[in-house]
Design a protein that fits this description.
alpha/beta, Aldehyde Dehydrogenase, Chain A, domain 2, globular, binds adenosine-5'-diphosphate
């Protein structure tokens, strides 16, 4: 593997942690160490911030065309190294290679998209309220951005922030998740080759996130935080941002409902459920978590889903035939085991899987449960694993009430062939994103984000760029003379 970097990137310099500490990155399929990376602390965080602040002074003045060209070159380099990046991603994250290759393309898509959007960050001229004055609105970069990202999409969750930040003229300090820093470092190396100037993108690896991110949250130099991760950490960072009133983008947890109505195309519903529930071995914030199935179709759907899930090949992601890989770490496995144990203890029936996979380690058998109820832990919390729990309902009103009975509102899915119902239910669901007859809806061209406790702001689409821009209103007065 050629793209392994073992140092942090601060101000254009690849370096060790100031205190010299390192930590191990493990392959979740084997438990073996892949590499050691710097375990940075507050000193390194401050150095990265100073570098980003210095670089901002010149990067903000570069032309949109130049920024666009750098981002496009970076995306091209990602695609030229797609196989290397995918293998590294699979090694540290565990997802099947086909999914990793897909993530590289998806991640590069954000750089390309914002290379284009940045060239059209028009301000405006406003009809003035006075004859002797003219009004214009300028779009300006927010400033230095801090990005804190999760391990489930180690490339895409970063380019989704780098793309709009750089296109807008911002500079960025990034703290990747401790389980998956190698993809972030490889990405930064390609950025350097694409011509990203020193200090514009900085990557600080650590296994003590509170030390690094805490330094950024306290600093007035950081004008915006873009965070993707758990709702608990998001709330903590939201509180920490109050003292310096930072702009915030928060992409937090979900507890997505997926509804199968009696009138659904059953094959399409099974395919969509598999795709939504089992992508990345169930470890995405938009994975279906509660599968609500109408009474009349329930038993046929459950049997067809169990057959399809039972046929999923569980293997290390490096195996080209793998459909399901390992979970990311022991805590993730323990949560999945707790959810299944709790459901079974409260009366759920296991139609497929239901326990650790025979491969052992962090592998869990893809599971289908029926007889789920709202008292079970899986109904309340995101499982983040390969467990499809089926809840039986009668009628549209009950489905909508069940679907919305959660504090989060990221994505929701439903399957129906009735056009009027499609509109009605799409409008009634409390979610930032809705998939109708489709289980995978993420794309750089559409606004991604949640309502309720799933977060603030949108990523991707034209909305994604606005998050990194300020509107400055300028009035030209005294013009009548
Ligand atoms: P997950 O459960 O997906 O690991 P987390 O919210 O714990 O979700 O992690 C998402 C990101 O937030 C990671 O980069 C992690 O290092 C970071 N993080 C976790 N705890 C803190 C904290 N106290 N302060 C700042 N960042 C944190």
């Amino acid at each position: 593997m050629r793209l392994i970097e073992r140092q942090a990137l601060v101000g254009g310099v690849w370096q060790e942690a100031a205190e010299g500490r390192t930590f191990a990155v493990l392959n979740p399929a084997s438990g073996l160490e892949i590499a050691q990376v710097p375990d940075c602390g507050a000193v390194d965080a401050q150095a990265a911030l100073d570098a980003a602040d210095l670089a901002f002074k010149s990067w903000r003045k570069t032309t949109a065309a130049r920024r666009s060209a750098v981002l496009r070159r970076w995306a091209d380099l990602m695609l030229a190294h797609q196989e290397d990046l995918a293998r590294l991603l699979t090694a540290e994250q565990g997802k099947p290679l086909a999914e990793a290759r897909g993530e590289v393309a998806y991640a590069a898509g954000f750089l390309t998209w914002f290379a284009e959007e940045g060239r059209r960050a028009h301000g405006s001229v406003v009809p003035s309220h006075r004859g002797d004055a003219r009004i214009v609105v300028l779009k300006e970069p927010v400033g230095v951005v801090a990005a804190v990202t999760p391990w489930n999409f180690p490339l895409a969750m970063i380019t989704r922030k780098i793309g709009p930040a750089l296109a807008a003229g911002c500079t960025i300090v990034i703290k990747p998740a401790e389980d998956t820093p190698l993809s972030a470092l490889a990405l930064a190396r390609l950025g350097e080759a694409a011509g990203v100037p020193a200090g514009v993108v900085n990557v600080v690896t650590t296994r003590s996130p509170a030390d690094v991110v805490g330094a950024w949250m306290r600093s007035p130099l950081v004008r915006k935080l873009s965070f993707t991760g758990s709702t608990a950490t998001g709330k903590l960072l939201m509180r920490q941002s109050a003292d310096t009133v930072k702009r915030l983008s928060l992409e937090l947890g979900g507890n997505a409902p997926l509804i199968v109505f009696d009138d659904a195309d059953i094959e399409m519903a099974v395919r969509g459920t598999l795709a939504s529930k089992f992508r990345n071995t169930g470890q995405t914030c938009v994975c279906a978590n509660r599968i609500l199935v109408e009474d009349g179709i329930h038993d046929r759907f459950a049997a067809a889903l169990a057959a399809a899930v039972g046929a999923l090949k569980v293997a290390p992601g490096e195996d080209e035939a793998a459909a399901q890989g390992p979970l990311i770490n022991a805590a993730a496995l323990a949560k999945v085991e707790r959810h299944v144990g709790d459901a079974v203890a409260k009366g759920a029936i296991v139609l497929a899987g239901g326990a650790g996979h025979q491969r052992g380690g962090l592998f869990f058998a893809p599971t289908v449960l029926t007889g789920m109820t709202s008292e079970m832990a899986l109904a309340q919390e995101e499982t983040f694993g390969p467990v499809a729990g089926l809840f039986r309902f009668k009628g549209e009103a009950e489905a909508i009430a069940l679907a919305n009975a959660t504090e989060t509102g990221l994505s929701a899915y439903f399957f129906t062939r009735d056009l009027a119902r499609a509109w009605r239910v799409a409008e009634a669901l409390e979610a930032g994103m809705v998939g109708i007859n489709e289980g995978v809806i993420s794309t750089e061209v559409a606004p991604f984000g949640g309502i309720k406790q799933s977060g603030l702001g949108r990523e991707g689409a034209s909305e994604g760029l606005d998050e990194y821009l300020e509107s400055k209103y300028v009035l030209f007065g005294g013009l009548s003379a």
